[in-house]
Amino acid sequence: MKRITNILFITCICLCFSFITKDSMLSGTQNDGLNIGDKAPDFSIESPEGNQFKLSDFRGKVVFLDFWASWCGPCRRDNPNIVSIYNKFHQAVFKTADGFEVVSISLDGLTDRKGNLKQENAKQDWLTAIEEDGLVWKNHGSELKAWDSQIVKQYHINSIPGNYLIDEKGIIIAKDLKGPALYATIKRLTE
After folding, report:
1. Could you tell me which of 177, 164, 141, 174 has the C-alpha nearest to residue 69?
2. For residues 100 and 92, is the Cβ–Cβ distance under 8 A?
3. Does residue 152 contact residue 41 with C-beta atoms inside 8 Å?
4. DSSP alpha helices (H): ranges in 69-149?
5. Contact call for residues 64 and 101 (beta carbons, < 8 A)
């Protein structure tokens, strides 16, 4: 009798959980961020020179959207890979796209819990890192608000480095690619 009671109890819990999960999915309360197949949200951001550019400016090209910061060790260690991939594919011929671009969004501008700046000169830190790491592409942007950046929130970035690979139609085709996986994914898109 005790065994039957335990089985019924476990069955009831499983059924309740399945209804709760189904309701959450139907109501859209579970949001894990952007996924492969989603349209990449457009944004406008200022370059270091003060010029505004939008993600949609690169429609027709494959775009590697990279979130990083000058203070992020793993980001800085990954930058040589991104530079190598940019140099390899920037002028490549793609099957359906009109080229390849990297768009870098910096999370410089850290503050502490009280809102005090942790970086004395966030913009200079950002510009120095671009130069030191040889980030030769022109599409650099930052709101200098670190985790409070609207673009960071829009793309659900919770850790860096973080990235999205976006096709020529503005659709996310991969995310969080590093090194060989990034190279192989882009290579498959070329002729």
Report:
1. 141
2. yes
3. no
4. 73-89, 122-132
5. yes
Instruction: Please check whether residue 185 is in contact with residue 172, taking contact to mean a CB–CB distance below 8 angstroms.
Output: no
Within the chain, residue ranges assigned H as helices are 2-27, 73-89, 122-132, 150-154, 179-188
For strand 100-106 and strand 62-68, is the pairing parallel, antiparallel, or unpaired? parallel
Say if CB 79 and CB 133 are below 8 A apart.
yes
Give the residue carrying structure tokens 């800085």: 76
Q: What is the distance between the alpha carbons of residues 146 and 73, in angstroms, rounded to a whole number?
A: 15
Q: What is the pTM of this model?
A: 0.81
What's the token pair of residue 33?
A: 């961020």
Selection from 149, 167, 186 nearest residue 68 by Cα: 149
pLDDT tens track, the chain, 191 positions: 555 544 444 444 443 433 333 333 333 333 458 999 999 999 999 999 999 999 999 999 999 999 999 999 999 999 999 999 999 999 999 999 999 999 999 999 988 777 777 888 999 999 999 999 999 999 999 999 999 999 999 999 999 999 999 999 999 999 999 989 999 999 999 98
